[in-house]
Amino acid sequence: MLVKICGIKDIKNALVAVENGADALGFVFAPSSRQLTPEKAKKIMDTIPAGVLRVGVFVDAPISLVKEIAEYCPLTILQLHGNESVDYCRQFKKPVIKAIRVGEKGNFYPAPELYKETVKAFLADTYQPHKSGGTGLSFPWREVDNIRKYGPVILAGGLNSYNVYQALNIARPDGVDVSSGVETDGRKDSKKIKRFIKEVKRWENEKNITRSKRIFR
Question: Is 177 a catalytic residue?
Fold first, then answer.
């Protein structure tokens, strides 16, 4: 079970997340209220332990720009949240997480089977027209089963400390990803970060599950 706190914008909350057991931190380089510059992202990354996964979030960005930022920061993993093609995903040496948006009727955007054996993992998020993610809305968690057949799945979309235990019971993903669910008034909230990770640990302990980052090794 991998825990990723996404949309990190400051050193304080990065350290709170890591000290409480987050395995990965997400840094948004696409237009968003959570977007930050590569320079600021690198400054934050320089303060966190080497073993923490550094995930760069991009949306249909030029390949050359993604590679430049990935090397400068440096990033461990690339998370692609747009309409990136299979060929696009093959252009990188670093592991790729491809976001798959799930609609109310179980429609997938894009189709996960296209990316089988090309990407390292999928991130299941909620479909909303004209939005690439970070909506704070959930989708039918059982739909994860229809993505898992093509590779490991990280569950996102509307998760928070009040529903992540139930979501884990239903979806049984390889990891969870949260952003708006640990925010207050659009800003990361250290207390919510702690509560979220605590709930994931509680589920792991009760199910006797050991957390692992092996899907990215």
Answer: no
